[in-house]
């Protein structure tokens, strides 16, 4: 992400992200569906789902159609199954942060 010109901040868990206060300054989140502690989908819920002003791109190693449907239904900017190409992720991020 940095090589594409983005400023990146990483977190070990959704709880760590929520405690950091970074949700107020983030332009886009890249979130795995399965995280230690609360899941990526629960993080989306806590941030306000479709009412969340911060776009979320989900990634998952599991091909769970229900997770994809829930994430997109609640306003996710995209959902990629691992492995994915760098270009796919960059395209979703670019579209998500476009004014």
Q: In CATH terms, what is the architecture?
A: 3-Layer(aba) Sandwich
Largest sheet: 3 strands, parallel
Instruction: Please report the distance between the alpha carbons of the first and last residues.
Output: 19 Å
- For this structure, what is the CATH class? Alpha Beta
Q: How many strand units?
A: 3
Q: Helix segment count?
A: 4
Shape: globular
Percent of residues in β-strands? 5-15%
Rg from Cα? 13 Å
Please tell me the overall pLDDT: 92
List SSEs in N-to-C order.
HEHEHEH
Instruction: Say which CATH homologous superfamily is assigned.
Output: Response regulator
Q: Estimate nothing, just give the exact number of structural domains.
A: 1
Across the major sheet, the strand order is 1-2-3
Which structural category do the helix and sheet elements fall into? alpha/beta
The CATH topology assignment is: Rossmann fold
Low-pLDDT ranges: none
Helix content: 25-40%
Describe this structure in words.
With 99 residues, the chain is α/β, with parallel strands linked by helices. The chain is built from four helices and three strands. The longest helix is centred in the C-terminal third of the chain and has 12 residues. It is globular. The two termini are 19 Å apart.
Indicate the topology.
Elements: H1 14-20, E1 29-32, H2 40-46, E2 56-60, H3 65-73, E3 78-81, H4 86-97
Parallel strand pairs: 1-2, 2-3
Brief sketch in words of this structure:
Helices cover 35% and strands 13% of the residues.
């Amino acid at each position: 992400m940095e090589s594409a010109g983005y400023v990146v901040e990483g977190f070990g868990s959704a709880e760590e992200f929520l405690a950091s206060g970074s949700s107020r300054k983030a332009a886009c989140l890249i979130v795995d569906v399965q995280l230690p502690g609360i899941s990526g989908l629960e993080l989306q819920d806590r941030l306000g789902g479709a009412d969340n002003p911060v776009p979320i791109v989900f990634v998952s190693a599991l091909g769970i159609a229900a997770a994809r449907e829930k994430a997109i239904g609640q306003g996710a900017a995209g959902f990629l199954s691992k492995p994915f190409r760098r270009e796919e992720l960059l395209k979703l991020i670019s579209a998500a942060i476009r004014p």
